[in-house]
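User:
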Amino acid sequence: MAKYIIVLMCGLLLSACATVPSGPSVMALPGTGKSFDQFQTDDLVCRDWASRQAGTTPQRMAGVDTAEGAGIGTLIGAGLGAAIGAAPAIPASARRWERAAGC
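Assistant: Predicted structure:
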């Protein structure tokens, strides 16, 4: 059971690192013979098509990522706090050793 919890926690931690890019990461320039106005129109059409295909915009996903990160951090912190709080202060093996030593 502990193995599944560890795998689940690792999965949650790694998935929390994934983000949607806030915009293009490659510089695009107008094609040969195209005006800057035509380039801007093409760029807007392309961005609109991409946001419809993805079902969201990068700005909206940034807010969702922040909320998910806060929620996951809270859950992990609460889980670890509960696990640490539920752990015995002195393990049973140490208590047996103390009794044998006369402490």
